[in-house]
Amino acid sequence: MTATGVLVSTFWLSLIIGARYLLIAGGVWWAVWGRSTGVGTRLNRERPSRRLMLHEIKFSLLSTPIYAFPTAVALEAWKAGGTMIYVDPGEWPLWWLPVSFLLLLVIQDTHYYWTHRLLHDRRVFGWAHAAHHRARDPSPFASFAFDPVEAVLTAWLLPVLAFMLPLNIWMLAVLLAVMTVTAVMNHCGWEMWPQRWVRGRIGSQLITATHHSRHHTHMKTNFGLYFRVWDRLCGTDAMPALVERGPGGPANPLRTTREP
Question: Which of 30, 55, 134, 145 could connect to 34 by a Cys-Cys bridge, CB 3.0–4.6 Å?
Answer without folding.
Answer: 30
